[in-house]
Amino acid sequence: MNPVKLKRRFADVGALQVHYREGGTGGATPLVMIHASPGASRQVAPLAALLANGRRVVAPDTAGNGDSDALPDPTPAIPDLAAHAHAAIDKIVDGKIDLYGSHTGASIAMEIALTAPDKVRRLVIDGMGLYAADEQSDVLRNYAREIAPDLEGTHLLKVWHFCRDQYLFWPYYNRTAEGRLPNGLPDAEEFHDFVVEVLKAMRTYHRSYRAAFRHPKRDRLVKLNLPVLVLTSPSDMLDSYAAEVASLIPGAQRASTPRWGAPDFHAATAATIAEFLDRQ
Fold first, then answer.
1. Helix intervals (H) in the chain
2. Predicted TM-score (pTM) of this structure
């Protein structure tokens, strides 16, 4: 697969604007890719550019992330974010779609698939956390803290270290040997792009994060009634939940991708997703 150049656009959804990336043409069902938190569609752009061979690919920034406006409710739930994303998708793409979601984006994509079964043909879940009650309380209390600008610039360091430590520890604030992840950091260019996207939405990024942590995923996964691929990398901090995620979805398929940073990571991941989407 050769990467397709993606273009950046905006769609109006009521009084709010949604920023998205898109590219590709062809006869395959259009694919909508919903990114993880924190960050924006920039983080799925390398995969989107590869998958846009033979299909149209659209990757929106979720509400309150990247360059998309936040919802007016300061404590949205996943169904609120999903309804807004669905409205944006309807503005951008006619007819049926395939959906890909990563982490928070997986919860949003799952909810769209449940509430709009006539719209969604196939679903890819790339990482989803199924937290025990104590884990859920801990991450809600500590993970997605609010960060405000200050004249000393400490918010810049807070965001930088928050983003950096997500690659190194799970949860990122468990900076101990026990919490250490086997991953290294991405290259400086990729990491800079990630930090910039989080800085853009620093005031509101935590809203979608907290919505995902609160969402009753186990109750919703069992209701899915379409072809689903559960995908994770062994580098993903949520990889340990993937087997349970797949077991809860009737007929789900399970696949693993290379480690993050591997030379073939994007190409192999795109090939796995394309094979699932194109299967008759």
1. 45-51, 78-92, 104-115, 133-142, 154-168, 188-200, 205-214, 217-221, 242-248, 265-278
2. 0.97
The Cα–Cα gap between 74 and 64 comes to 10
Sheet strands side by side (includes 97-102): 7-13, 16-23, 57-60, 31-34, 97-102, 120-126, 228-232, 253-256
Q: How many other CB atoms are found less than 10 A from the CB of residue 223?
A: 12
39, 182 contact by CB (below 8 A)? no
Alpha-carbon distance of 3 to 127, in angstroms, equals 23
Please give the span between the terminal C-alpha atoms of the chain, in angstroms, as a whole number: 20
> What would the two tokens of residue 160 be?
């930088």
| Closest to 229 measured CA to CA, from 144, 124, 92, 110 | 124
Give the model confidence (pLDDT) of 230-248 as tens digits: 999 999 999 999 999 999 9
Taking 3-state DSSP, the helix, strand and coil percentages for the chain, each rounded to the nearest 5, stand at 40, 20, 40
Name the pairing type of β-strands 57-60 and 97-102.
Answer: unpaired
